[in-house]
Amino acid sequence: MKNFYFLFLGVLFLASCSKDDDNCSSKTFEEVVIGSWNIQILGQTLSQVTIKSDGTYTDDGGEDLISVGSNTTSRTWAISGKTLTFTVKDASGDEGETFFNYSSHTCDNIVFEENLFGQITFKRK
Asked: Can you give the pTM of this predicted structure?
């Protein structure tokens, strides 16, 4: 009977550690996009961003997504339909935007429709 008890506990433990906990196939694009990303074009990382749940983002290195001046005052993002938009404003009121048209996602990759530069992928850092 003791062996059965330990076997039961072992099976219960293994079941509680399944990979299903890490599965984000049921999460929407809007849920998956929150986090830190390497932005890649044709497999080369060109920029890094952290997208925050409060609608702002930080530019973490590499090429700037958008440049509007030397004194950036805000960096925001929004999703409308299948379009992810990043907006930057500077102290003088100038504003710049860049758009990414969503195609598909997994937990650690977001693929956007190809543009003039090629396939754009956000890879989770």
From this structure: 0.77
* CATH number, domain with residue 78: 2.40.128
pLDDT, one tens digit per residue, over 8-59 is 434 333 344 444 445 676 899 999 999 999 999 988 999 999 999 999 999 8
The reported pLDDT for the residue numbered 23 is 63
CB 91 within 8 A of CB 73: yes
Q: 43-46 — which CB contacts under 8 Å span 24+ positions?
A: 45/123
Residue 51 falls inside a structural domain: yes
The dihedral sign for the CA sequence 106, 112, 118, 121: negative
Please, what is the Cα angle at 50 between 44 and 52, to 5 degrees? 150
Residue position matching structure tokens 């409308």: 80
5 within domain boundaries:
no
Taking the alpha carbons of 56, 88, 44, 111 in that order, is the dihedral positive or negative? Answer: positive
45: domain range?
A: 28-124
Q: How many domains does the chain have?
A: 1
Q: For residue 106, is it within any domain?
A: yes
